[in-house]
Amino acid sequence: MDLAQLPEIATDGMAWHLLIISAAGLALVCLLGWWVQCRTLNAAHADVIWAYGVGAASLLYLLLGSGPVLLRLVTACLIGFWSLRLGTHILRRVIAEGGHEEGRYAAMRESLGERINTFHLFFFLGQGVLAWLFALPAWVIAHHAGEVSVVWLVAGVLVGVVALAGERAADKQLDRFRRDPANRGTTCREGLWRYSRHPNYFFEWLHWFSYPLLAVGAAYAGWLWLAPLFMFLFLWFVTGIPYTEKQALKSRGDDYREYQRTTSAFIPWRPRHGHSTR
To answer: Measured between alpha carbons, how far is 70 from 58 in angstroms, rounded to an integer?
Structure first.
């Protein structure tokens, strides 16, 4: 980090005000989401709030930022497409459940009983905090005061495009597999799912490498490498793989255990001996 650049952002009142505005907006949306789950007994839309919230806060920063227009436009396209695609994908999944709560949220509700609404109040607000934090790369890029490197710009775009395309492909392959009644009770081993048990999570993680690359030369740019680190920790230990695999073992049993034995958990890799594509 170049400390000489800090005053350039510190004196930009709009930059700091936007952080406060986005925090307040996200808090209000999360409180509304919590109120809705109290009425519907369905908290699955918390993930929709997170995905759309990151995009909305990021686009606000990029629209009103003072950095190079091309850099802000490129970043807005990447984060905007990511937010719209992921948020809409999750929203469609929630709607398709027909009012039934997703497995991991249903398990939370069953486990916590009467305490569930208090828990979800902090959970929804926590989603807002996470959305605010994951929008910070856009805030840094929006106030880039240095010279933009074409090399790092191209590198960031390439990583972002590959990640977005990979995550979209993985989700479409899984949706297509699930829509076939003949596949009920079995595990998807098609396309990217042959090489990773969670290719969608892998490409989601990869996506967050694009912003540190785009931000090279900006104040605070070095901190943006924490984004892919924290995303990996969340996916590997908290919200992603643990709950998904627990639910898969519960619903698919030995078929999923065989899948675990032969297929990489995260990074796409050649299947181990004994793998069946079915």
So the answer is: 16
pTM exceeds cut of 0.70? yes
pLDDT digit string (tens) for 170-225? 999 999 999 999 998 899 999 999 999 999 999 999 999 999 999 999 989 999 99
Distance CA 231, CA 243 (A): 15
Q: Mind listing the pLDDT tens digit for each residue in 100-120?
A: 777 677 777 777 788 888 989
- Tokens, residue 244: 């998904």
**Residue 138 belongs to domain spanning:** 3-262
Q: Is residue 40 in a domain?
A: yes
In a domain, 177, yes or no: yes
Region of 113 on the Ramachandran plot (φ > 0 left; ψ -120 to 50 alpha; else beta): left
Domain annotation covers residue 275: no
Is 151 inside a domain boundary?
Answer: yes
Report the number of distinct structural domains present in the chain. Answer: 1
